[in-house]
Amino acid sequence: MNATLHQPVIEIDKLVTHYGTTEILHGIDLEVHEGEIMIIMGGSGSGKSTLLRYLLGLGIPTSGSIRLLGQDITRCDADAMYQLRRNMGVAFQGGALLSSLSVVENVMLPLREHTKLDEKTMRIMARMKLEVVNLGGYEDMMPAELSGGMIKRAALARAIVMDPKLLFFDEPSAGLDPVVAAELDELILRLRDAMGMTIVVVTHELDSAFKIADRITVLDRGHILITDTVTALRASDNERIQSLLNRTPSKERLEADAYMDRLTAG
Amino acid sequence: MTEASTSWPAKAHSGVEQLGRLSVRTVEELGYTGALLIESLYWIIIGPFKRQPISVPAVFAQMMSIGIAAAPIIFILSFAIGVMLAIQGIHSLKTFGAESQVVVGIALSVTREFGPLITGILVAGRSGSALAARIATMQVSQEVDALRVMGINPVRYLVAPALLAMLVMVPTLTFLADLAGLFGGAVYTSVELGLSYTAYLDRSLAALSVNDLSQGLVKSGVFATIIALVGVSNGFQVSGGAEGVGRVTTRAVVLSISYIVIADMIFTYFLNR
């Protein structure tokens, strides 16, 4: 697939963010093209979850810009953001289904918010999406009655109910058994092929990442190490990338004095 | 380094620093709560014009859990307060041989003070805590984030209905508490002094003015705002998982009861000038 033919739908430019006084992301540049599956990968503490939060417009960055579908979400007003949200779907790591609503009510929520369809039409549309994620027949259950994999699929159904142009998926396979995780990977590929969505997946699962990725971005301590295809990533000679791929523990080099200071500090 | 940090100036310094941090935090929280109030009112008033109205079923659901479900316990507690006031009133007025004046005392103190106060404290404990825990849990499980990315403003979806329901139900419950308190007083005086219910009612109505009742109801509106806002602002500011939910819930109840008592004092002072 030739990515240069496509318009970038996500453009991140020199993104710097802070948590309290600690700088988390140190100037991130990233472009995602239309119809692409981009995997954001990295170990814990690499800043990948933070990057996702800012991509979703859930935080105000210190500097830099994030353009989604041509709209700079760090500067646009609430109404523009509201319009943009119709074209964005998000499946959170823990599902984040509203626990007071049944599965189908949860899936209908974006329709209720953004459309003026009548109740019956919304219910049918929600059921269709539940069928897509193989949850037909579970519509009247409450989120608390579902298993982990079912919650993730229900969350995915809710994310795609508006047929968004952009789909964000946080840790699709975390905490799932390999079979269910593989099913979710298939589902993500199918969604891209059938609906032409641009999909951003944040994960630390290598197998799943290699299976579905068009391109992979590796984040490490708030920096992007590489953004490239799976083959290029595998061929990379960067030490930290290789240690991530081969699951070798990172050996942090520390001066003896600095180490002593750290132990005796305070 | 370690010696210096325990020396006297350093201790005083850290004390001042803590005081400073506490003040900053208090002002910050006050501002945050105020912003929540303004935003809720914005959605209640402007929302329908922007085709983003607050959900009426949500308001009614909240009204059910805040109001209707609390009615029996409010009735019982207020009745008990009425009886207590009658006992104490008769006991202390006996000194002056003016036991029959107890009716006036009960009527005024229940409608002006005890009705609103007992309702406020009970609703804070019952519904303020539930509100804080619900929002905190939603915050922890990313449900609030999910609402935001769906374009559903959490203040409009969660805060405004709760505030509206509180503003309707707390004064309503207060009115119920007034009636129950007066009834409690009537039952005890009829037993103790042999005063008939009609006579009690007549003398209560003669003693009461509209101002007495409305004073109580105005205060209950203020309490409703305090309970709703303290509950939700603590809920949103949760950090640290399940333990955090427990912590903010406790904090919400303690703070709203404290604010209610303090606000009661302030309002009573100004309303009686």
Automatic annotation (TrEMBL), chain A:
CDD domains: ABC_Org_Solvent_Resistant. It comes from the Bacteria. Residues 10-246 form the ABC transporter domain. It comes from Methylohalomonas lacus. One of its GO terms (molecular function) is ATP hydrolysis activity. It holds the Pfam family ABC_tran. Keywords: ATP-binding, Nucleotide-binding, Transport. This is Phospholipid/cholesterol/gamma-HCH transport system ATP-binding protein. The keyword ATP-binding applies. SUPFAM superfamilies: P-loop containing nucleoside triphosphate hydrolases (SSF52540).
From TrEMBL, chain B:
GO terms for cellular component: ATP-binding cassette (ABC) transporter complex. It is found in: Cell inner membrane. The chain crosses the membrane at residues 30-46, 66-87, 157-176, 252-271. It holds the Pfam family MlaE. Keywords: Cell inner membrane, Cell membrane, Membrane, Transmembrane, Transmembrane helix. It is a multi-pass membrane protein. Its main location: membrane. One of its GO terms (molecular function) is phospholipid transporter activity. The keyword Translocase does not apply. Belongs to the MlaE permease family. NCBIfam families: MlaE family lipid ABC transporter permease subunit. This is Phospholipid/cholesterol/gamma-HCH transport system permease protein.
